[in-house]
Amino acid sequence: MNAILPTSPGLNKAAPHVVLPAKGPLLSRSGWSAFMVALIVVCAVAPVLNLWVPEGSAWHMSTYVVALLGKIMCYAICALAMDLIWGYTGILSLGHGVFFAIGGYVMGMYLMRQIGLDGNYKSDLPDFMVFLDWKTLPWHWTFSGSFVATLILIVLVPAVVSFVFGYFAFRSRIKGVYFSIITQALTFAAMLLFFRNETGFGGNNGFTDFKRILDMPLATPNMRMLLFVITGLTLLGFFMFSKWLVHSKFGRVLQAIRDAETRVMFSGYNPLGYKLTIWVISAIMCGVAGALYVPQVGIINPGEMSPANSIEIAIWAAVGGRATLIGPIIGAFIVNGAKSWLTVAYPEFWLYFLGTLFIAVTLFLPNGVVGLVKKLRERKIT
Q1: Is residue 14 domain-resident?
Q2: What is the per-residue pLDDT across 237-259, written as a single tens digit (0 to 9) for each?
Q3: Which of 104, 181, 276, 328 has the fewest CB atoms in 10 Å of its CB?
Q4: 316 closest CA partner among 141, 81, 16, 18
């Protein structure tokens, strides 16, 4: 005979509904205004000042400034990628320089093929291959003559490398300082590999002496400005994509993993897929940045894979402010702008300045420049 359990009045009440916070706009009104200003500066103001304003004018933007800003915007994309993986997911990578260099090498291979018979040896092979007595292109140069294939490989190669490494690292639940050390070892091993002449990547000299892209000369003001505009639009596009990503359900899970990964697992989520996805996205962003960097700077060599370069990417994010998206971009401009000035004015003090800056930010500005600005605003309001 089934027993009838007594019920209390409280059990008959409807369970309270959990009201989730309403999803806010992608950008605030001031944010959209700043975005539109940046868009106008990149697409209209900079081209006019560089191409149309005479060189003798005080308003003229020199070719040096165009190249410098284009290079820093590539670095800003890397800093933004670092913010996604470190600021929003809590995974400090000290090896993102390898993905930046991989994208650069893929673009560099295409640019080397574009030299054609204009090289010193008048051969279809790149000059360094003729010098090393190579008879044919290596297998990994197969698609380097196609621009479309190059664009695909710029995304695909960093994605595959990062997926393979990330899958085994995250599946083994390697985290914290151990993960940072392993990523640093990864970029150091890659640098040593690319230094070898037999790998077909130009050895310690890398790739240089580029002449054309899509059969159009690289060393012209119009082409430099076109690359500048494309880089600026790519940076703004990645910023909007990152903004959308971190405000989505996927982004909220990433932040939960950063704050309490064990609780996320108890809630029924598998962190592996989320961490691996954002890791691959971050690597692709760095690869694209590297591909945009090479035609503007004119060289790519294994030095771009040095552990110091990867550490600098983390410094840009820390200086600007982690988990803010705009902060790492600001940090990349501040640090690299200071670097460009100090390496000319006081070259022997640059590394001391960088180390002092990182220590000062860690001790006194844990939330970076953006965090400092927010504090000052709050003080004014109160």
Answers
A1: no
A2: 999 999 999 999 999 999 999 99
A3: 181
A4: 81
